[in-house]
Amino acid sequence: MYGSARRAFTLIELLVVIAIIAILAAILFPVFAQARASARGISCVSNAKQSATAVLMYAQDYDETIPRLFNRGSVAYGFCPSGDCGPEWGDPGTNPNRQSGLFWAVLQPYIKSAQMGYCPEVGKTNWQSAIPALTGSAYNPALEANGTYQSSFAQMAVNIWLVEWHPDMNWNSRPAAPAGPAGAMAAWARPAELIMLTADSVWDTGGVSVSAGVGNTGVWPANPVGPCGAGIGWTWYVHKGMQRSGNPQPGGTGTPNDRGINSGMANIAFGDGHVKPVRYNALERCDFNATAGVWAWTHWDPRY
């Protein structure tokens, strides 16, 4: 008596199963990637919120004034009594025993976490690649450990018009010595609409700045079209962007407009502490302010 015969898959059946699996993978993998990107974006929003809270806590302790970009003066900007007040913006120096007085560094007692300064979508800065390329100096692990590198090239960047270029308000020249209401929250006309922090800044639009996730510490607007004038600002609209590269692409009226830097959204902490993702064209608006009779950067200029 013969046993029951086994039935194997035919070649056609195997190919059909493989094809179905391939189709499902092609459909689901992008969905999984988008889900991971969304999770990183939410984490970045959380970092921005906690950082904004730290800024407001600092302001409560210092007469409603947020930290300056340079809190010991600045050699590069011409106001430093001793002539040796580094580390500077973009220049961390080489001495690991020299405490940084830059914006992000003075917030650390209120945050107590260097990780809050990194946007998960950008990734933690690769300091070993970044420092030699940006400064010409050798990477020093002690300067990374004590936070000097991060404060000099922070991804969590402050609107520079709030802390240095106020009250001058001239994007084309260095600010005057500290004076007036720089950093004073009482001088902000519309805090709920005013950018305080961007959680996604980039030091430059290409090279190691993008590939190593280097931040800019201070940011400003850069819409190439409009009566507010051209410029180069370094908010990185990396969330759901068209690409991660920093190669300039034509835009506006022929002015370089970077699709990798400016195509997505950025997570922004506003002056009242609330945080939300905002697209490039919505954030970097130049509008006519009828009350003051001037063209102004709507979300950047604290005066109007």
Structural account:
With 304 residues, the chain is of the alpha+beta class. The protein has one domain. The protein is built from nine helices and nine strands. It has helices spanning 11-61, 103-111, 127-135, 141-145, 148-152, 160-163, 208-211, 259-262, 280-283, and strands spanning 157-159, 195-198, 218-219, 248-251, 255-258, 265-270, 275-279, 286-289, 294-297. The strands form three sheets. Strands 3-1-2-6-7 form a five-stranded mixed beta sheet. Strands 4-5 form a two-stranded antiparallel sheet. Strand 6 and strand 7 form a beta hairpin. Helix 1 (11-61) crosses helix 2 (103-111). It starts with 10 loop residues before the first helix and ends in a 7-residue tail after the last strand. The model is unreliable at 167-172 and 250-255 (pLDDT under 50).
